[in-house]
Amino acid sequence: MIGRFRASPVLMTACLALAASTMAQRSNDFQFNILTNQRLNSVMRCHEVESLFEYDLPEVLKVRVPGTPEHEVVKNYIVSRLNQLNCSRWNITQHSFEQDTPYADIPRTRFTNIIATLDPEVDKRLVLAAHYDSKRTPRGFLGATDSALPVALLLDMALTLDEKLQNRGLSEYSLQLIFFDGEEAFQRWTATDSLYGSRQLARDMEDTSLLSVGDKTALQAMEAFVLLDLIGAQNPTFHNMFESTTNLYGRLARIEQRLHDSNHLESHSQPYFVSQQLRSLQIEDDHKPFLERGNSTHTHPTRFLN
Length: 306
What we know:
Layout (H helix, E strand, L loop, with lengths): L3 E2 L4 H11 L2 E2 L6 E2 L4 H9 L3 H12 L8 H14 L7 E11 L7 E11 L6 E7 L12 H24 L6 E7 L15 H12 L14 E6 L10 E3 L5 H16 L3 E2 L6 E5 L10 H4 L15
Parallel strand pairs: 6-7, 6-8, 9-11
Antiparallel strand pairs: 1-10, 2-3, 4-5, 5-7
């Protein structure tokens, strides 16, 4: 897309608008609370893109390999930002565990997933997720799109929307943000050397009381799971990859079109969210352990997958 947001990237505002809406997704029977023009404009006015690049991105855009001091700094920054949210409505959880890795210098590594849940007593959750670790390379790897920017987007979105979310009162649906640790492989990507954080979290959300609500496990409470990864380069395109989430994907596409029609986008010649559905790509990413358990929404620019 040759598109530029006047106040914020289009994907950022699509997530803002989606999170600000009341929605449900587990079958293909979605229900949305469409934002009025007044509320949409209010969401647009409450954020300036400069804050994203001035505050959150520089603090995350570091070499952040699990088990290193730099990784600990980034983890603590994410937690500190989330702790600025209204503590009476948000629950901040650090899901820590240790696991063997094939890397000789750090054979036993401690990982920490970070989960922020708005109104944890609500049993229907929209989940937005990204991983915050970076890949181990000899020269060091910043991972701007993989995935410092998605992490910064989620942090900025949460702080931007917090006041508006507080004002809405208790709703039937809630918001959960997950920052995965250990997505990257230490040596070579395999089923056991990758996705450390998401594999462990999906297991614990299914098999234990971690973040459970009522008679639902945390996994059962996920009405929609949206993973942001490899986002930040120019001209990305996002395809619908799961038939079960066609309506949710269509909602994102309509939000983008509405932003264009209301003159909130500039130079908008080609959409991010395209109509063509891709079903043959098997993507290895943090959504996979949840997909295997029935959750199937994924936001991943297609050109990185080719």
